[in-house]
Structure formats: structure tokens, C-alpha cells
Write a structure and sequence with these properties.
single chain; 310 residues; alpha/beta; five-stranded mixed sheet; two-stranded antiparallel ribbon; 14 helices; 7 strands; 8% strand
């Protein structure tokens, strides 16, 4: 495994924090450098880890702090922390050759916060830093709630206006059949891709003709197949299986949709192959369905492939 980019998900860093001494992450860095492998952080992973640091009584506090420490050491080289662009920035740059106006500010604030937290754990007691950590935790919760509300409106209430129950489509045999037909149609991918294009245009306050938007939608369909398959999987779990999207790890679907956007031949990196390191079963399934399973590796598979495990 050589000359590529890797992005670790949250659980990969949390697993490493439990299983290896933090000094060994420097050994991994050396192996990656030898093999021309570039490790980039994900904003979403950093935000998720930081969100557990506002309260020392959080059962995940210590593990997430150590995981953030590993992320810091893993993606720090040339005296800087290196992050891959977030999903919105990727879409805006590829579709419209522009970045959202707040992109640099978000990255700058995150990097500064990580430096302060890692340099001294006691800094978490500083009022300004603690306020920033608490703000991140609150914003993540708000984003998850907006995503859940959007799911309810777009895939529950639009089909069955008087219901907000996640399993309401599953319980109605006629609606369930219609939903299954839609899932297996080309329209589903088109609408998901269309949503991505519109979100990018709105972020940049761009208005364009239907024909221009249509061309971009077709391009998104051809490039971001894993994300489209992941969204199809979400629809299937809710419509057909009656899954409650508000419970457990399903609240993380929004972050999974974002992080998998970087998979494959990333046009922002001269088409270098980008691999996601994760053991998430739903991401693995979506990648397999999209014919892109080579770009998703479990942590142990990656550590073996790069030569860390021999």
C-alpha cells in the first residue's frame, strides 16, 4: 500500500488509544512516510472526540482525550495539523471552484483548540476553552437534530403526512411496496445527488439554470457513489425495516454521510486514492454496493497492509 491518503474514523482512534502506547503512533507515522502515505484528519472525527471533553464525568472522557492526542500526533507533520476538506467544502470546490467563506475560519479555530487541549489537559478547565468545547458539543447535537428533522420531513411526513413515527411506512404494506420500488429506481440516486448540489449552491449563494444544475447532479451521481449507496441504505432501514433513526449510533448517520464523501479518487488531491479506515458495518456495506470496497479498510487490515503489523 503506497502513495495514497488515509483518513481514520472516530472509533479507529479510540481503539488505538486503548490498545497501543501513544509513542507507537510515531512508529506508524514513520511507516506511512516511508510508503508515501499521507494521513489526514477529519473535522467530524475531531469534533466528535472533543464533544466528550466538556465533562470529566463523561464515561468516554479519558478514552476520547487519548484518542484526540493520537489524532494530533498522527496528522501533525511539517509543524502543522493536516485535515481533509469537509464534505461541504469538497462539493463546493468541485462543483463551483469556490470554498464556503467560513472554511478557513472553522479549520483555524479547530486547530487552535486542539493545540490548547493537547498541550495541557488542565486547559480544559479554562473558562474560554471549556466554553468552546461545550459549544462544539451543543452544535453537534443541533446538527444531528436538524438531520433527524429533515429525515422525518423528507422520508416520513412527505409520504404519510399525519405521521412522525419512524416505522409508519413499514407498518403500511402499500406504502412499503411503493417505497421499495422507489429505492430500486434511478430516481432515488438523482434526488440524493440533487440535494448535494443544492446544498453546495446555497452555501455559496449561487443561483443557476435548471440545465446547469442537472449537469452537476449527473456528475455527482457518477463520482460520489458510496454516499448515494449509504443514503439508500438509510432509507431502506427506515422504510423497510422500521429503524428508529433517533436511537443509538444511528444519530451518527449524518457524520457517516459526510466522511465517506472523500472516498476513492479524490479530485482535490490530483486523483490520489483516498482510503477510509473504519469498521463501521454500514459504511462497509455501502462501499461494497457501490463497487468501492477497496477504499474502505478495517483498522487491522490497514495496519497490516501498510506494514505496521508484521
Amino acid at each position: 500500500m503506497r502513495d495514497c491518503i488515509v483518513v481514520f474514523d472516530t472509533n479507529s482512534y479510540r481503539y488505538l488509544a486503548r490498545e497501543i502506547p501513544d509513542k507507537q503512533i510515531l512508529d506508524l507515522n514513520k511507516i506511512e512516510k516511508k510508503n508515501s502515505i499521507t494521513s489526514l484528519g477529519s473535522h467530524y472525527v475531531a469534533f466528535e472526540l472533543i464533544s466528550h471533553l466538556s465533562d470529566k464525568t463523561d464515561p468516554h472522557f479519558e478514552n476520547c482525550y487519548q484518542a484526540l492526542n493520537l489524532l494530533y500526533k498522527h496528522i501533525k507533520y511539517d509543524k502543522n495539523l493536516h485535515f481533509i476538506a469537509n464534505a461541504e467544502a469538497i462539493l463546493c470546490k468541485l462543483l463551483y471552484k469556490e470554498l464556503p467563506p467560513y472554511t478557513d475560519e472553522v479549520n483555524h479555530r479547530l486547530v487552535n483548540l486542539i493545540y490548547k487541549i493537547i498541550s495541557d489537559k488542565n486547559n480544559l478547565q479554562d473558562k474560554i476553552i471549556h466554553k468552546e468545547v461545550s459549544r462544539i458539543e451543543q452544535e453537534l447535537n443541533e446538527i444531528e437534530e436538524r438531520f433527524l428533522d429533515e429525515l422525518r420531513r423528507s422520508i416520513i411526513k412527505r409520504i404519510k403526512p399525519n405521521s412522525e413515527k419512524w416505522n409508519s411506512i413499514k407498518e403500511d404494506s402499500d406504502l412499503r411496496k411503493r417505497a421499495l420500488t422507489f429505492l430500486n429506481s434511478k430516481n432515488q440516486d438523482y434526488y440524493t445527488a440533487y440535494s448535494n448540489v443544492i446544498k453546495a449552491a446555497n452555501a455559496l449563494e449561487i443561483r443557476e439554470s435548471y440545465l446547469e444544475t442537472h449537469k452537476k447532479v449527473l456528475w455527482v451521481k457518477s463520482i460520489f457513489k458510496v454516499q448515494l449507496e449509504f443514503y439508500r441504505l438509510i432509507l431502506k432501514k427506515i422504510w423497510i425495516d422500521g429503524a428508529n433513526a433517533d436511537k443509538g449510533s444511528r444519530r451518527n448517520w449524518i457524520w457517516d454521510l459526510h466522511i465517506i464523501l472523500c472516498l476513492g479518487n479524490n479530485l482535490l488531491f490530483n486523483e490520489k486514492e483516498v482510503y477510509l479506515i473504519t469498521s463501521d458495518g454500514e459504511i462497509l456495506e455501502a462501499a461494497s454496493n457501490a463497487g468501492a470496497d477497496k477504499y474502505v479498510l478495517k483498522l487491522e487490515e490497514y495496519l497490516t497492509a501498510c506494514g505496521f503489523y508484521t
